Amino acid sequence: MSLFNKFDDKKKKSHVRNLIKMAAADGSVDEVEVKFLNRVARRYGVTPEEVQHIIDHQDDYTFTPPSDKEDRHAQLLNLTIMMMIDDVIDDHEMAMLKKFAIGLGYPIGKVDKLIQTAINCVKEGMEDEDAIEELDEV
After folding, report:
1. Distance CA 93, CA 90 (A)
2. How many domains does the chain have?
3. pTM (predicted TM-score)
4. How far, in Å, CA of 47 to CA of 95, rounded?
5. Residue 9 parent element (H or E)
6. What is the pLDDT of residues 62-84, one digit of tens each?
7. What domain range is 49 assigned to?
């Protein structure tokens, strides 16, 4: 089973909302960010119409944290990719990623190390499953 198909509908839409917020964190949403958002949404089974609804009504979607470690790792990786995808890591984006990591349920004392590990996994182009194993070791 794909990592993306495990989440329930509420968690999928919550994650898409978080990706939208991350994309907009630096004040602009680039085409590459929109493409990534749509690709992740498709993998999660969220339709383009639902993505648009989430964009237009972000406040209707509350954060729903994942229920297990693998889901948390997958979401952290997606958020990290979104932060890095335009080749600019803005201070506001990094602060937002830290806030999301804490919201995902990671211990505050491990957040910086987890984020650095996620960044390294993205830079190395690791497959999702391999990156999740790396995060699991932190």
Report:
1. 5
2. 1
3. 0.89
4. 29
5. helix 9-24
6. 888 888 899 999 999 999 999 99
7. 3-136
